[in-house]
Amino acid sequence: MNPFIPPKPTFTVHIPMRDGTNLVADVFTARPDLAQPLILEITPYGRGPKGLNFGNESGYWMANGYVHVIADCRGKGDSEGEFAAWVHEGRDCHDTIEWLASQPFCSGRVGMRGSSYTGTNPWYAAREQPPHLRAISPSASAAGGIEDISWLGGIWSFEHSLTWGSRQRDGALFFTEPPDWWTLLEQRPLLSVDERLTGQMQPVYRAFGEHRLRDEYVRSIEMSSDDYRRIGIPTLAFTGWQDGCLGGTIKHFVQARSHSPARDRQYLLIGPWNHHGAPDGGYDYGLTPINPLDDLHIPANGFVVARELVRAFFDEHLKEQGRFEQSLVKLFLTGENTWIEAADYPLPQAQPRSLYLHSQGRANRLGGDGVLSWEKPSTEPTDSYVHDPRDPVPSDLPGSDGRPRTLREWPCDLAPLLNRDDMLVYQTAPLTEALRVAGDVKVWLQVSTDALDADFFCRLEDVASDGRGMRLGSHGAGRQRMGGRNGIEYDVPVSPGLVIELCVNLLGIGHTFLPGHRVRLSVCSSAYPETFPNPGNGEPVTTNIDPPRKAIQRVWHDSTHPSRIELPTLPPT
Q1: Of 117, 116, 208, 219, which Cα lies nearest the Cα of 165?
Q2: From the CB of residue 1, how many other CB atoms can be counted at a distance below 10 Å?
Q3: Considering the entire predicted model, what is its pTM?
Q4: What CATH superfamily classification does 11-144+225-342 receive?
Q5: Which secondary-structure segment (H or E) carries 520?
Q6: Where are the alpha helices (DSSP H) in 286-372?
């Protein structure tokens, strides 16, 4: 039997939840008569062969002495109830684990493996402390709540909220053709877009749009420090520098390292991968290397057979066989194409170093006079541009096949977007020595606007000696709303003309800029349809009904207002 061809389930079970709802799950086991350790995945994308799940690994786990179980989330597939993103998962995972652990085919030792939504479920399960959950491998995980998925930086992820939030029970989208995003620019209020496109209200989409601040609902679905203190089991997480859930995966690791009683058994591996390939070490469901990622060609040493590492991890903690031997943190640096190991994240050996923004007031477009250098600015004019919400900077580029290519996870050359007056561009001279970066990159912008609110987006690129750039960073990173600069607890008023310091977090980047290359930063105020343009009138973007207004945005860089990129740098090799 080929261990990577999805087998048929050995049998299907209906698992009772504490409120009487039943979840449906497929059980894969080579020995139904033998109690073996069990690996569980709970998915909203369909448990069958047409769904997004780890069913391709079922034969592998069966061949290696495990029971593999894939269950439909509440309200998805054949499971009963109504789906609500992240609301029921902790309790349902707990009840599922404890029911399965009591069955004759299970040894009483349960682990969880998952990716994306199914990779976030193990964290919710662990905080409920089911007695029989012994280890989890939660990869490409969202942080939970809203901060990293629907409202990162206080800016609404419109495209994802509408598409992911409008899925049917089987995981398929309600609309078979992509929406005409540009006609939706005039739709107000945005919360009614779901009815216009699908003919009915979409509860998940509405929940994403209605809860933009940390209210009681948000607190119920996000992980607190106390939650991590209750997680006393080991974890092994995979993510990638291009993964849209990079920030969430890192956040879980950092919080568990800070608060969990099992802090010394938390493992994090970050490779040169996107969201799709991260849990498989860069492979497409463990079979085919995903290469190249647009302009990023991944060398052979950039791939990892993730399932083998996960098996070694589970062998120790579910079978008490062998010992999982790996440093707590392992990162791949693109550019120099090598792995590095560390005892923690952020890396203890990384030192902050700042590149400062400079210009003579004409940094607009790719051919402007914007400069990055290690020297602090003195007396310099501001750079400015007009943000027009009706003519936003697109978040897509034309692909070679003529179809739009989203920038969310593609390390590509941004030059086609940079020749707009509403783009500011700054870059270094060719580097004389390698610049090694590993960790969260932050852009500290000194900005002002003549509007009542404004968004700022920053993108970092490595520009090769031939002039071709390559975007660095993950989906959603590098954006911040002025009114949300103090987090998602509350809005902060924006006074027109007042200069404020804005921290735009590019999140994790692991890359070496080689000698002869340049560092390039671009700044703008929109990325549509990934996010919806700020209307500038101070009203929440999801409920605003008034016409948007143009705004003049300014970036300051002088001795009093030094704008800079803070880079966590490593010593040269």
Answers
A1: 208
A2: 9
A3: 0.96
A4: Alpha/Beta hydrolase fold, catalytic domain (3.40.50.1820)
A5: strand 518-524
A6: 306-314
Nearest to 189 by CA among 539, 551, 549: 539
d(CA 519, CA 510): 14
pLDDT, tens digit (0-9, with 9 covering 90-100), for 144-164: 878 888 999 999 999 999 999
Round to whole Å and give the CA distance between 541 and 297: 38
Report domain extents, the chain. Answer: 11-144+225-342, 351-569
- Name the region of 77 (left: φ>0; alpha: ψ -120 to 50; beta: rest): left
Class at the top of the CATH hierarchy for domain 351-569: mainly beta
Q: How far is CA 221 from CA 165, 166, 224, 254, in A?
A: 16, 20, 9, 18
Written as six digits, the tokens of 536 are 């500038």
| Confidence (pLDDT) at 330 | 98
Q: Are 448 and 560 in contact (CB under 8 A)?
A: no
Q: Which two tokens stand for residue 399?
A: 């692909």
Q: Are 157 and 121 in contact (CB under 8 A)?
A: no
Looking only at the bridges linking them, the beta strands covering 338-342 and 329-333 are antiparallel
Cα–Cα distance measured from residue 435 to residue 430, given in angstroms and rounded to the nearest whole number: 11
CA nearest neighbour of 274 among 301, 254, 303, 252 = 303
Q: Is 545 helix (H, G, I), strand (E, B) or coil?
A: coil
- Packing angle of the helix pair 117-127, 246-259 (nearest 10 deg): 20
SS3 (DSSP) at 227 = helix
**Cα separations (Å) of 168 from 43, 78, 86, 414, 552?**
13, 12, 16, 35, 42
Across 117-140, average pLDDT = 98
